[in-house]
């Protein structure tokens, strides 16, 4: 079965489903990071060292955050963790549309080029996504460590989201949001790795299939009244094509009569 036929059948729907899954997972990665950044008044909490003062009352623990004295993470770090999944989601949307239109492609060369382009883009996105996942994971762990260390491990990081923060209008489950972001960020990374391997394998199969259709030596028979056959061979030294044409007896006689 030709590779194009494979792509037009079950593989096309499986790939579209995987891209749709990537879109959903990317949304669960970048949306929580952006929300938490807004909660902290556009400050990046990754690798940050917040300075807190705690007081207690009947309603619970009240956390007063000193934004000026706190050390915040670089905004570029949060931007990476937000925009890399956004770009990955846009990439998946475009390729979903491409695979929907795949049934209209009848040129094997176009299919091969599309697979090669897809493989290259997925490798680039995979590298960017794994960097983003490391930044998000390490930045989140560092933020939690600084909070718990400040109060001598009296509270866990998950408990801090139950406090009443003075910069929040209401309580926000920022720890849960960031945990979800980390999980789905790594899930997107794993799916991109799977897509890269799959696209690379199909690209290899496409190239191998194209070579198998062009053997080194072929004979092409043309009009037997004009020409007996034209023999095509490949020069092993230069890699060039050689045509050996032999005219039939009838063709030679016709040329003699014209003279």
Notes on the protein architecture:
It is a single chain. With 259 residues, this protein is α+β, with helices and mostly antiparallel strands. It has two domains: 3-212; 218-258, no CATH class. 59% of the residues lie in helices and 15% in strands. Helix 2 runs antiparallel to helix 3 and helix 2 (10-39) packs antiparallel against helix 5 (174-212). The protein is elongated, with a radius of gyration of 31 Å.
Q: So how many helices?
A: 6
Shape descriptor: elongated
The structure class reads alpha+beta
Order of helices and strands: HHEEEEHHEHEEEH
Q: Give the biggest beta sheet.
A: 3 strands, mixed
> What is the beta-strand fraction?
5-15%
Radius of gyration: 31 Å
Quick tags:
single chain; 259 residues; alpha+beta; 2 domains; 3-stranded mixed beta sheet; 3-stranded antiparallel beta sheet; 8 strands; 59% helix; elongated
Question: What would you say about this model in short?
Answer:
With 259 residues, the chain is α+β, with helices and mostly antiparallel strands. It is built from 6 helices and 8 strands; from the N terminus they run ααββββααβαβββα. It has 2 domains: 3-212; 218-258, no CATH class.
